[in-house]
Design goal:
The protein has 115 residues and is mostly helical. It contains two helices and four strands. Helix content is 45%, strand content 10%.
Amino acid sequence: NLRQDNDRLKEQVKEGELTLEELGQQLSWSKLQVDTMKEEVNVPGAWEKDSMATNCKICTKEFSLARRRHHCRNCGGIFCDACSDNKMKLPSSAKPMRVCDNCYTVLLDRQSKLP
């Protein structure tokens, strides 16, 4: 009797662990979908104005005639060329677009988690 009870309890624990693992995967997938929806809602009007940016948001170097401003097509922030020289395919465009180093890292991480 004790052996049967032990076997039954082990089976229940195993089923519970499998259920938790499946729920965890579904939660991760749902979070990715929400993040993707947020990207798609990204309004072009949310871009930072050129006149408001005097320095790169990552390296903080000052913009000049030689160091031009570039908008990240994902977050809308303004960065220097060195901090925004990545290209990624975004839901809003058929071709790869300029993204800042920060968005590039986040988007790569997100893509690596897709099934």
